[in-house]
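To fix ideas, we close by showing one paired sequence and structure record:
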Amino acid sequence: MLIIIFVVIAVVLVVFAISTYNGLVRRRNEVEEAYRQIDVQLKRRYDLIPNLLEGVKKYFRQEQEVLTSITEARARAMKPQSPGQQAQSEAQLSGTIGNLFAVAENYPDLKSNTVLLDFQEELSSTENKISFARQHYNDSVQVYNTKIQSFPAVIFSRMLGFTEKEYFEAVGPERESVTVSYN
């Protein structure tokens, strides 16, 4: 009778360990899939930038520095990085693109150019998609980190090498509040 009790306890423990491990793997894969969605949207933005630069190049003969800074920021952002570093690179890229649109205000022909307006709208749409992808990623990280830190999964997670994931946090200008002026 005692052997049967030990066998039942052992089977329950094995089933529990397998179930916990599979749950941790599922959460980890959800985080990785969410990060890939950010990557897809960032790639879309990276692909738009050369077309944008080509469209404004003829107007920006005097503003070569702006175009160069966007190209360099884009190249830095495209390198593989941790989520925190990626957020920092993306903030720099967004800032340089913002400079381009600010400088474009000085060129009335360019400001009314439909190509620039179309790119502005496309970039805005892409920024919204990136924002939603970041939110989904951070939600997935929150669920995963909570799972690996909670009892009883914490017992297995550390033994099996599950570590906390880094959030994709806004940095630099993205963290600053927006100022609205009605002049």
